[in-house]
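Side project, low priority. Logging it here so it doesn't get lost.
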Amino acid sequence: MDEPGSSSPLGGFEIIITDRRWRAHVPDAVRRITRALSVAGCAASVALTDDRTVKQLNFRDRGKNKPTNVLTYEQPPEILLAFGVVEKEARRERKSIANHLTHLIVHGALHLQGYDHHHPGEAREMEAEETRILARLSVPNPWKNR
């Protein structure tokens, strides 16, 4: 971990930033996360971390030996994001890291509320809800130009 971690209380939950690149690229990350969780109607802790940490957890908990953009845990409710994966995706999709972070927080929040995307119908429903919430956050529709 790059820094001991900084946190901000969120109604009993925390926002923990362990990789300093998050602060360098998204200086208003705490505000964005707090607002996204509020609009999504979700209470959860959030960890902005690195690929190595997410890769270890993804292998331990899902049997996948690679980092992923976001991991969501139900008990206790927690959303973890890997900086390197998020940065690469944002660059590839030509969007800001800040907007991609907001999208993934909303995505994780919806998972915590029972949404999923394993089947086409579920994916369409989840994407529509993400788009609705992101519009309230002034974040462009991430599904528009795919």
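Brief comment: Helices lie at 20-25, 29-40, 51-62, 83-92, 97-112, 120-136.
Revisit when time allows.
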